[in-house]
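Follow-up to my post from last week.
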Amino acid sequence: MNITINRLAPLMLGAILLAGCAKPPAEQIDAAEKAVKEAQMSGAATYTAQEYAKLEASLTAMKKEVTDQDGKFALFRDYGKAEQLATSAKADGERVKADAVKKKEEAKAGALQAQQVAKEAVKSTVELVASAPVGKDRAALEAIKNDVEALKASLNQIQLAIDKEDYPAAQAQAKAIHDKGQAVSAELQNALAKVGKGKPSAHKKK
Amino acid sequence: MTVFSVRNGLIALARGFFLAGAFSACVQVVPPELVSAIDRIDQQLVALKAPEIAPEEYARFVRQWVPLRARVQSDDDLVRWPWETNELETELRRLHEEGGSTLAKLHGERQAQQHRAQLNVLRVEERLRALSSQIDAIDGRIVLGGKPVQTDLLVKQARSFYDQHDYQRSIEAADLAGKALHVQSALLARELGRYADEQHIRSWQAMAQQAIDWSRTHRSTAIVVSKAERILTLYKNGNKVVSYPVRLGFNGIREKQFQGDGATPEGRYRITDKRGAGRTQFYRALVLDYPNQDDRRRFVQGKKVGRIPAAKQIGGQIEIHGVENELMAQTLGCVMLDNVQMRALFERVEPGSVVSIVGALTGRNAVATALAQLGAHGEET
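User reply:
Got it. Predicted complex:
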């Protein structure tokens, strides 16, 4: 019996010392923080705001758990839960990042498509203006030309918003330009209908 | 069975009940409806777009909710001593209360923001409509260049953001549109302010009176054209004979500066030629002596001060004419009448007659009225 106790004692002491040497799961914590950072860099705060907020909360909870354990007497420290939280935060971070990237791509694709539609609307209006006879019905035509020039210039605003990755703004601008382009085309067609088959004026000066 | 054994049995039973009671008291139970209620608050906060519109408040909520939910789902807090309070439930109740307050606060703010956005969008749309209508009424659109389109785009964006429930951006776009409308009104006032300026009006009245006096003195015809009212009046021997509506150049509301600007000149002119059928493409035409000495002096001065680009020419061929083609009833800077009226005028007017083209004859002209209404509308909003 004494022999058994003598043999077991070092093992028990070793186990106690081992427990006393418990350290925070640095590798998992780093991985979790990196995953959250990457999610943030991918635009998660904008495109998956709800998930990102929860992800940050998980990271905070994990850090608190580590701090709580750090505050305990060395022999009673247990970082098992912190490790579990870190692993979970890492997995969530990767998922949120993937979701954000997907949603951002969708928003970008939507903005690019809206930009294209707006460009086509402006192009069609420009072509309509170019085909208008340079006759004496210039009151409407001159005003419309100003409108078309302004529309052409405003296309740059869409590109600027896309460059800034502000896709909702790009979409709203593109929609406004498209709608205005169509309205200008309709106005121009009305003006042209009035001009009808009128001859171009040979009058000069003025 | 002895009394002793019965007594022991009862004691054992009492112990059993006690242990069962003690055991059940040790099991920490969190009311599931409490957890569901907090979950609903979370969903409602998300529906309110709290993560986007109030990220700090939402972050504060989830920083508590995420670990508490994890504790509810884990076994850590299931057992407690009977003398311990149910901390988890207490914390959940506190979060429920706090989350409820945040939700109510954000809901109120969101409603206020929606109301403000709606009001701003409606107001700016109404202002745009009013401005467009006033501008069209005085043919002033050309004066503003590309600004009406830029403003229209902002108003459309404000509406678009509102429809997407992005009230903050809607308010920002509406504010920008409001400023752009203000700039347009100011530009119109600067460019056309002379129509409301008493000194200008007096000068134009004097110019018109000179034409009438000339008609009386020379026992001849004279014409006065008021650009603001688009009216041509024929005088004979100093007496008013008839008035006709006219159309001006595409930029006729402005004073002519150079060739091709589409503006109709202002000043005192003479009819230098009467062109009947076959001599004009505009049915009948009364040719004016534009540019006269005053016009040339103004043109030279305009170039000198940089108001007129150096490469520009002064232009010419300003006429009072009829319509070349009813389908092309516009002019470049002349004064145009319908053919029936042009024929009547043509037959009555003599070469050499004086023609005064003025901005307006009274302070209450169409342009001044439009500018005043725009100013009043701008102050209201």
